[in-house]
Amino acid sequence: MRTNSARIYLDYAASAPVSAEVAEAMRAAGEDAGFNPSSLHAEGRRARALLDAARDAVAASLGARRSEITFTGSGTEANHLALTGVVRALGWKGHVVASAVEHHAVLRATDELREIGCEVTIVPVDRDGRVDPEQFSAALRDDTVIASVMYANNEIGTVQPVEELAAIARARGVVFHSDAVQAAAWLPLDTATLGVDLLSLSAHKLHGPKGAGVLFVRTGTPIAAAVPGGGQEFGRRSGTENLAGIAGTAAALKRAAEGRVANSPRVTSLRERLEAGLAASIPGVRINGSGAARLPSIVSATFPGVDSESLLARLDLAGVAVSAGSACTSGALEPSHVLSALGTGTSDATIRFSLGVPTTLEEIDRVTAMLPPIVASLRRTSPAPA
Ligand code: PLP
Fold first, then answer.
1. Annotated catalytic residue 118
2. Does one domain contain both 228 and 275?
3. pTM value > 0.85
4. Is the CB of 99 within 6 Å of ligand 1?
5. What is the pLDDT of residues 346-359, one digit of tens each?
6. Ligand 1: nearest atom to the Cα of 210
7. Which of 167, 187, 246, 303 lies most in the core, judged by the most C-beta atoms within 10 Å?
């Protein structure tokens, strides 16, 4: 991974640059990745062996079987395949449940399902972004076909009680999907323990390549093809496979799994240091979701009396890369549906600092020292302090 040491990158939740190990795995896949795994000749068989090995590695990281791993073109696509694939398999009808803080990839899929006649219930969250299992249970109906609650939130880092929610859904015969795109770097991913039927991942949040995702599909889960065609990916997602991307995905997930036990506590302590530093030096700062279990990596801080765009720009000029809430809509500063769901939607600046495995104590201390004068100067010049 190439970094500019003068700059501090704290936007790993937007994308974690490809690591040297992943780049090497993709390079090593090299020549074989150039052939078609569906071809019957020797070259095709080499490509097939590469694909199978990557699928086995991903399956091992998730405690799954090879046939339960579908490679997709992104986390977004995995989420879309999960929701629309199940509803399509069950006849394009039924009731769908999702939480209010899901990523747009899930929420837009539920919009699409609503348009084709499904009923959708959006389960609210508490002020820290948590889904209450009782409210979740109450939202399920006899005609509910799928429920989707993310493992951890991309804007504020709140971790949901996925095991408990999955068990509730299972007891009611409802397919349970979880978007684990942000959780995958930090939290256990054993699909048997989690009890999920479907789980989405994205390689580029794990120092893997962009344009590469995974959908775990538990054996027996009804799911129809998202992209019909040549029948690749067990018929769920046709199209000649992105072999280099898939090799990179397998390497990224393997490394994340191997490093998780050491990395999660270390990065949690950096997150806590940043939060404590902000609280001690900036009057009025609020840490969103602070009452809930959160990812080691995400600090969502609201700075009253300052606007997001100015704060982002000042931090960027000072050499710090962060985002405002979530950066998924082409960098646009739209009001965050997640903060609105928490009841803390505000015009005050909310900045997401997202830490990564490469983040250092020195970087955290530099950012903590740099913020108070920037916030103070913006507050002095702000036209309408809150
Ligand atoms: N789900 C969550 C929780 C995310 O944070 C993101 C990306 O930010 C996605 C899904 C989409 O993943 P991708 O960028 O691979 O489409």
1. no
2. no
3. yes
4. no
5. 778 999 999 999 99
6. 15
7. 246
